[in-house]
Amino acid sequence: MPLSESAAHAPTVDxxxxxxxxxxxxxxxxxxxxNTVSANFMANVLxxxxxxxxxxxxxxxxxxxxxxxxGLLINLGTPTAAQVESARLAAAAAENAGRxxxxxxxxxxxxxxxxxxxxxxxxxxxxxxxxxxSEVIGLAGLGGGARGVDSSSDPSAAVPAAVELLAKAAAVSxxxxxxxxxxxxxxxxxxxRVRGGSAWxxxxxxxxxxxxxxxxxxxxxxxxxxxxxxxxxxHFSVAAEIAEAGAKGPGxxxxxxxxxxxxxxxxALRGRARIDAPVRL
Amino acid sequence: MPLSESAAHAPTVDxxxxxxxxxxxxxxxxxxxxNTVSANFMANVLxxxxxxxxxxxxxxxxxxxxxxxxGLLINLGTPTAAQVESARLAAAAAENAGRxxxxxxxxxxxxxxxxxxxxxxxxxxxxxxxxxxSEVIGLAGLGGGARGVDSSSDPSAAVPAAVELLAKAAAVSxxxxxxxxxxxxxxxxxxxRVRGGSAWxxxxxxxxxxxxxxxxxxxxxxxxxxxxxxxxxxHFSVAAEIAEAGAKGPGxxxxxxxxxxxxxxxxALRGRARIDAPVRL
Amino acid sequence: MPLSESAAHAPTVDxxxxxxxxxxxxxxxxxxxxNTVSANFMANVLxxxxxxxxxxxxxxxxxxxxxxxxGLLINLGTPTAAQVESARLAAAAAENAGRxxxxxxxxxxxxxxxxxxxxxxxxxxxxxxxxxxSEVIGLAGLGGGARGVDSSSDPSAAVPAAVELLAKAAAVSxxxxxxxxxxxxxxxxxxxRVRGGSAWxxxxxxxxxxxxxxxxxxxxxxxxxxxxxxxxxxHFSVAAEIAEAGAKGPGxxxxxxxxxxxxxxxxALRGRARIDAPVRL
Lengths: 281, 281, 281
Description:
Three copies of one chain form a homotrimer.
Chain A: H1 13-26, E1 29-33, H2 39-49, E2 52-54, H3 62-66, E3 71-75, H4 81-97, E4 101-104, H5 112-122, E5 128-132, H6 133-139, H7 159-165, E6 171-175, E7 179-185, E8 188-194, H8 207-219, H9 225-245, H10 250-263, H11 266-272, E9 279-280
Parallel strand pairs in A: 1-2, 1-3, 3-4, 4-5, 5-6
Antiparallel strand pairs in A: 6-7, 7-8, 8-9
Helix pairs in contact in A: 1-9, 2-8, 2-10, 6-7, 8-9, 9-10
């Protein structure tokens, strides 16, 4: 069943638990075209969460693989010329095959070259865009401008940009202390805030990248793009919250986070999920 | 003394302990042409085990370095065009200099482009091929087909393919719950099963890749290719078993595994090794 | 205020504490053009220490970014053709914009191709060169020759080479059991030894690379190049010493090291710093 561009109803914790159970049962195959900083941690996050990673990012194989993977992530962290070509081929192939793909437009707002690539990729209609506020704002062409790869805006400031991006992507999220997820419910733009997480997360490099890959995993098993985003953000936030309890710093947190992603079960997910009531935009 | 293509006798735990002590004493220099997911973990595994890693993978230097490294690993996880050229040059240089090299044919069975590269590299006569069952079957052209980079076959199913590959490689292993290692003893194809390991290993990305690099390290110090493979698999499995005791999930396991690789001594290796009696094929 | 090429006085622990406090307050943006082995750990070290990493290493963006980053690291671990082009563009742009940059000439002494690149980059006047003894000796053209990427010389042996390199770089360090840092004080070549660290550090791959990136971070906030090097080496050594207390091996050490880098405060830095009295050369 292909991923719907609009949710039939605003996703609740029940929908998140269903998506989670489906992910664990189906172990979606996620193709990632990603940066060198993130590749290892991202693959470990996918494995721990219950998905199956494959970093097929060369132009010879990217399109072929995108036609069979359950989800595709394109992350623009450290793009090489070959990866940019692979991204175009894979995004086109995914759209053509009706497979969901996710765009993580790292620093797209602050660096014109990659901004142009990100804008071009949008034409292939991603199921989801995941970034920080600056990146979402930058991608929508509303100004902003990322400082390096860190966020410099509050996620709530990115909501108008996220809504604008719904013209190209089925759903959009801006990560931050409170994640802001925007998609369509019965065709109407809707905001859902996901709370939780940990203050250690921004100190673990590529944690945002890994979340983008988890979105691609959920896009491969969920009913609709908004539910996939809400489920991935919730799964990530709950695991981070659990991991924080035993962490003494960013190093021990990263290790505990992988443990928590794996150890999570439906009861813990349900008990700790903090999904706000939907806001019609 | 160059690595022999056939063992004088089937390797036993005594031979593994000798190879291990030699590795610790000689700290073999291992050149790795490998994927972006694995590079960091692989280098840490080599250092912890007692070898010296060098990821020299550009076409300008790959052949030069292959002539001086004690062992070379070529891993096809995320091949770039430059790495493919480097792999050809390095494999040729290694063969020419009589230096052992190891092929890890990631997803070679499932993706025709890299399958062709892997088949081409086989002409340079690797000392060993290490893969999962699908990859070994795929490389031998017996069908199969990997799903992403995960194994989808039982290692025992790969034994006929491994035997077929002995026409090109001195020894072949298929990793899995029970590792299946095939090589020649007094010229006769022989199977040795290595037991142990941990269920956490498949949840740590690039653990198989790192094992391939450890095979290259042992190939640089062992008497023959079969002993190098059995020693690497045994060292890896024993360390994984020790690490599992203190692990709560894949994150803490990965950290404990590096500790265990380093902390291992001859007594622990001897006491925990589980090498089955050889099976003449 | 641009980084001075000569210190007004030999840096003391007070100067290191000031540099450290400035780094924490300003969170310098560090651009890194680095190898695939190091990218993840380096970014995590920078985040834990209080800096902001951005691995912008493509030729389209490298120069633009070098004009805005507070510090730039160029590490020659696994150079691709595109990264070499990026390195030239970024080093030129940094010099032009008066932004400090740091060269980590991995294996420059042992491999002629990258040795030539490193020598060429020196023309862009790095604020600092950081390497192990073999690399510093190799870069200065005094002979030597690195074995793989490990150091094979005592850092004290690199002091003459470091002094020679002051013709191109404002300051130079050779890492080892005792780090040897050479720069100018009131225009006079001066050696400062930094003690501490941990025997686990050399068993964590890319720890030297990460130190190079930390030098670039300090170069973005310190008064002069010598102080930047002494501060980075001291910060690194103190955190390693703290981390060693709870480590059981290289895996748990790496995790504890990130925790310690983050957890460090001025009192611990001051109390544990071991900076020898300066030696006029």
